[in-house]
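Field notebook, page 221. I keep forgetting to write these up properly, so this time I am using the form the group agreed on. The chain and the ligand, 2-phosphoglycolic acid, are recorded exactly as supplied. Prediction of the bound pose follows.
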Amino acid sequence: MGTTFFVANWKSHKTENEAKVFLDRFSEKTFSPNKKIILCPPTTLLGFVKKYIEEKNMFSLEVGAQNISEFSEGPYTGEENARQISDFASYVIIGHSERRKLFGENDETIIKKAKVSLGAGLIPIICVENDLFPLRALRSEILMVAYEPISAIGSGKPDDPKNASNMASKIKEIGKFRVLYGGSVNPGNVSSFTRADEIDGVFVGGGSLSPEEFSAIVENG
Ligand code: PGA
């Protein structure tokens, strides 16, 4: 049985205190060893989360960033470059629909960000809806893809698992990617996605903020 991935995208939520409360209450003890959790806190908490999971030997957890600069080191005020992010994280989310819509990211930015991440040894988690163009430019790379229909994000209306699975096979025709499904995943519907052969895991926003709800997602997925 392959590994099942659970990405927790905390978006712009949680202070250090709140992250500590989450981690204190999040128990991985009952998870089967083939489940891997990638916790993606805001940049301000990357160091704190990394240290916490190392000190507590939380072996099923790894750290991911939510964004990365398309530039390397230099005069780019307010940006964190790939080498800096790789001090804390092993993964990085790229091209989430919120970044495309609110921060003007496009296919070109996404490809640049993926390339700098790969250059620093990070694994990009590229978010796509129906436009698979950025994946074609990265077809020979090792990366993860999160298929997220915009109408399913934060709406409580997840995609039909059959459709998600068909999209996952289409994505896998492009490259040797691991494919996740994202959009309104909860403890009740997670297994309808993780059961599908072509889907390697889930990408969770709102459902990852409470330790009890996210544990239940991992448990049931
Ligand atoms: P949601 O968000 O789980 O709250 O729908 C998904 C996402 O961050 O893309």
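OBSERVATIONS:
- The mean pLDDT is 96.
- The pocket of 2-phosphoglycolic acid is lined by residues 9, 148, 153-154, 182-185, 203-207 (CB under 6 Å).
FOLLOW-UP: compare against the apo run.
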